Amino acid sequence: MTSIDTFQFVGRRVPFVKMHGCGNDYIFFNGFDVDIPNPGELARVLSDRHKGVGGDGLVLMLPSEVADAAMRMFNADGSEADNCGNALRCLGKYLYENGTFTTPNVKIETLSGIKDMEMTIVDGRVLAAKVNMGKAELAPEKIPVNLSGEAIIQRKVNITRQPYEITCVNMGNPHAVIFHHDIDHFDLETIGPMFEHANLFPERVNLEIAQMVSRNYLRMRIWERGTGETMACGTGACAAAVAAVQLGFCDKDTDIKVEVRGGILTINYTDEAVYMSGECIKVYEGVVKI
């Protein structure tokens, strides 16, 4: 079993901050001040909720040559993700409140491109943020998913013994959305991994199970590739809202409420981009000896 003591920087005391957006929690390291080698392996060790700090993954906040800052995010299994909306908002909060950012409007470099963010600031504290998550991609080769057609909208697939109708969206990472009448009793622990690792998705996939509450209001559970079920997922909420618009359940250019297990995210889907707004909370600061 890998332990923290296997790292080449044994004995270093490194500060971190634990933050979450709607319960989607991450361990953040300030890469402006300290170098973190082997971040994927460190994410796997520290994300353990019994033997580590505990979290859905690890985030490095880094300098950027093309934006105000850069973000690298690693899932709990050590794999690197292209983007994470909840982590982006928390990164903005930390760097603004620590003086790295001096304006509420910033640009963050991610593996899926540069994201514009506008923070809501009250008495010097960032309470929430709105992120331009980029354009929703529906073409199967952009997901990617091994199905033909211009888009995968409510397409029936047989990944499990029971067929499911999926709508596929790329929000900087791949998503498959299923609408279901009772998400609370959906066996996500079993079905989630089957979808994540299905041959249909060459880069694996995030699975959202969504249920309409009323027009422009839906509930959602998420199985994140590399992590499992989480309390929230920003890109997943965007994908679910896009799928709901494609199926006629919600409206474009309108605020759509997406209720996840950790709170509510507001999504606005336009032809040019998908905008996500939500809270960003600092839980605590600490020091880990690694």
Written overview of the protein:
It is a single chain. This protein is mainly beta and 290 residues long. Helix content is 15%, strand content 41%. The chain is built from four helices and 18 strands. It has helices at residues 39-46, 85-97, 188-196, 234-246; strands at residues 13-21, 24-30, 57-62, 69-75, 80-81, 105-110, 113-122, 125-132, 155-157, 164-170, 174-179, 206-214, 217-224, 228-230, 255-260, 263-269, 274-279, 281-289. The chain has an 18-stranded mixed β-sheet that branches. Helix 1 links the parallel strand 2 and strand 3. The longest helix is centred in the first third of the chain and has 13 residues, at 85-97. The protein is globular. Residues 1-9 have low confidence and may be disordered.
